[in-house]
Amino acid sequence: MKRKWQLLSLLLVAVLLFAACGGTTTETTETTETTETTETTETTETTPATTTTADGRTNSPPTDNILRTNNSSEPGSLDPAKAQGTHDSWTLDHIFEGLMKYDKEGNVTYGVAKEMTVSDDGLHYTFKLRDDVKWSNGDPVNAHDFEFAWKRLLDPNLAADYAFQGYYLKGGEAYNSVEKPGIYYVKDADGNDTAEVDHEVKYTDADTEGLDIAGKSEEEIAEMVYQKWLAEKREEVGVKATDDYTLEVDLEMPTGYFDQLTAFYSYFPVNKKVVEANPDWAKNADTHVSNGPFFLETWDHDAKLILKKNPNYYNADEIKIDGINMDIIASEDTTWQKFAGGEYDLAVSLPQSVVAKLNTDKDPEFIIGANIGVYYYNLNGTKEVFKNPNIRKAFAYSLDRDIICNKIAQGGQMPALGVIPPGLPDDQGKDFRETQGNFIEYNPDKAKEFLAKGLEETGLTIDALNGSVLLYNTSEAHKKIAQVAQQMWKENLGVDIRLENVDFQVKLDREKAGDFDISRGGWVGDYADPMTILDLWFSTSAFNDVKYNNPKYDELITRAKNSNDQKVRMDAMKEAEKILMEDMPIVPVYYYTQPFVVKSYVKGVYKPILNYPTMIYAEIER
User: Fold this and answer.
1) Share of the chain above pLDDT 70, in %
2) Where are the beta strands (DSSP E) in 444-553?
3) 197, 320, 375, 484: which one has the fewest Cβ atoms less than 10 Å from its Cβ?
4) Is 0.70 surpassed by the pTM of this model?
5) Coil/strand/helix, residue 602
6) Which of 211, 586, 535, 232 is nearest to 380 (CA)?
């Protein structure tokens, strides 16, 4: 028997209310006041009036029906399988569409799929696709594109950071884990082979059956065996297009949030024909092909992205704007100046002083969007000075998060006294964060005790910690928070930390290479379950930049992923969070909100709890 999937809201409105730090309460509901469309008469040939607000801001609606905003960093990739951050995903969410998507109220609803059924055991999904969906180049979007895209995400040769999201598929991890026969050596801090053997992958005579290995070298035979293994494991991955518009999916374990995952960018389709013909298809606008409400018309690298309305989009009549211009500017001050001067219609990266004033003034153009995310500092566990948990806990207990939230961030953020943010229900329908309680406090005396104990256990001195570098991506907000953390660690621990800022993509690359001491980290959930945060520090996670490795933690995460019993899952995740906070490989700082501004003449922008503000259904009133 199969049951028809019923549309559900992601979370109750109650969980969209975030309390500000230090006891003050800030209402951070979704921007429902902007989700209703407004009928307007045709005024496209009339120049919109320019007005000035009381505080001198300019309201100047664009004459070309193009929404103007800013992406604070150059995208690392606009290939859904290779993307790994909000600087990628904000654009991807507007130019692609998955089987499911978020509607105007921020709820998960049908996208390319028109129907979804789930087996009683929760392991088998059948998606029926719309037959009127086209790629931006006019090709039809079909189930084979989805099968190709999901298996491509898992292809070990692609080395996608988000490949682990495909492990929910039956056989997904097995396919992604295939290695070529040969000897693998332990890597040094720079990623180079050392003389120490890590492991060896061997093949047998049975593996060469059916292969023409006569006269071939060992290297050639190893490659042939590797390709055979890949083909076999690829075929076993639990996604299959049974016809052009039917996708059958088998999961490793029941996953109650799998519908949400199909709305996440790693599960977006790609045009099989285009990708196979050109491996570099996603690097430039003239070769880029997508299936969403907009397409990429221009990508002036490190300068500008121009999205245009996709005339082939099946729901094109619902798209009221003709496109979106996204400058690439890291400066929050410049972003605000352009918004205030009437050059931007929406902005999401704002100076903290501006956020504080807009929030205090209850500015009508200012919105504090709800978020499921945590801002934290990575402590590189491969560095000698951060291998000891007591030293790491000293850094955590010496941060005054109330000051950081109330005096520095000032955007309704809450102090992070654990890693799971508010807004995620447990098996009893209660807030996971509330039932867990807090694991950290601001306690300089206890921080000094932790540090003294850690130094004694390791034989290190304060001098070993002095000069450690805190790496953060270029942003006035990150800089100010880093400066305050630097000061608190100096005052409370006597440790001198240096600061270094780099471009966001450079920061990500250095974290992946282990080239940091301390680094600013942040994570916004991909789906509404605590696992979206906790699996970051699974020992083999591509995002485990601190190289945390605790077998008990891995065991609990595996148990939570493999169970369909919500109590078993939640109990395992609650215990896992306790272990993580006892080991303290990262220092939680605050739980995210997303302050942003939008002009009064822009309607229809909404903020899903798991995404950046969505401009798909925006309208510009004139």
Assistant:
1) 91
2) 469-473, 498-502, 518-524
3) 197
4) yes
5) strand
6) 586
